[in-house]
Amino acid sequence: MTYVNILGGSYNIRGQATDVSDVPFKMVKAFKVGARGGYVTVDGREAAGFPDRDIRIACAAPEHVVSVDGEPIMPTTYPGSTSASDTMPQAVLEREAETDEEIEARISLRFEMLDDLTAAARRGLVKAMIVTGAPGVGKSHGVETVLGKGNTLAQLADEAEVPYEVIKGVMSPIHLYMKLYEYSAEDQILVFDDCDNVFYDDSSLNILKAALDSKAKRCISWNTESRALAEAGIPNSFEFKGAVIFITNVNFANVRSAKLRQHLEAIESRCHYMDLTIDTVRERLIRIKQVVQKNMLSGYELSQETKDEIVEFVDENKDKLRELSLRTVLKIADLAIAFPHRWQDYAKTTTFKTR
Q1: What is the pTM of this model?
Q2: For residue 34, what is the enclosing H or E element?
Q3: Per mean pLDDT, which range of 195-199, 252-256, 301-305, 321-325 is the poorest?
């Protein structure tokens, strides 16, 4: 059973909304969208002051449900599932027949395509893109590397840079509108990295639908009074000519909520959709080995023998790790630098699941 914290969550006790941000719960069912907003089902029996039964904790978005050490919970529940015991989709099961070499080739091709699509967005040829895949497999790094490299090449060629910004975390509808205005010029790019709450808010969704419209002229409007817009000198309507890239752990194809599916389909229909097809433990491990072989640890003053031992350690303990990802490899590499003779002991203490 996964223990989680719900960031910004609340539970109604005797008519009073009680903040539960610092209360660890056993998760029973993952985030779902209900009639009155989002919620996650947890076991209240071990939490003092809560009912001795399963309860629903209100929260705004899936990314607000994290493990007790602050990590995303995707590695312990399949993306889009309602519990850890859910069956994987048929497409994932069919990939189980692939050899390791075939999986590595497929993943490499996907990341090459991601680079190409990002470069096309930089040139103004791709207006909207969704990139989905497991946490910590290099989605963000790939996109930011291409955008940053493009700016460097532009500088060397004495060309104008293409402005872009990476936005993480939670964003309100009014700030979404303002940020789209700021990056509304042609060839400008906004990257939303794990900023998934924009998918679940009706106002944000309507703004995004206007920004990503397939029409030649994409106009966005804010039709209510706003002091923030007035103070910033931002009009209540403007034409958006920029590009938008969404980087997310949410696999749109596996979302079960009918309401949420409608929201996501409205966005997906306006975007190029890139699923990196890294869902299973086996696929994530192959991706880790692939990136490490490309000198991911080149910045660490470690022997090749130690680097190989780190990868072997991750492979042998893949089912015990809190998160099977590139981030975990880097954490262990840090420990190998700090504690060269006992890094395995520290890695077991800091990266293994405790429950």
Answers
A1: 0.71
A2: strand 25-34
A3: 252-256
- CATH fold, domain 94-275, is Rossmann fold (3.40.50)
Cα separations in angstroms, 225 against 173, 204, 228: 13, 16, 9
Angstrom distance (rounded) from CA 132 to CA 199: 14
Where do runs of H (alpha helix) occur along the chain?
Answer: 90-95, 100-122, 139-156, 173-182, 197-200, 202-211, 227-232, 258-268, 281-293, 304-316, 326-338, 343-351
Report pLDDT for 81. Answer: 43
d(CA 4, CA 42): 9
- What are the residue boundaries of the structural domains of the chain, listed by start? 3-85, 94-275, 295-351
Q: Band of the pLDDT at 265, cuts 50, 70, 90?
A: confident
For residue 348, what pLDDT band results from cuts at 50, 70 and 90? very high
b/e per residue, 140-176, with b = 16+ CB within 10 A? Answer: bebbbebbeebbeeeeeeeeeebebebbeebbebbeb
For residues 132 and 277, what is the distance between their CA atoms, to the nearest angstrom? 8
3-state SS assignment for residue 156: helix
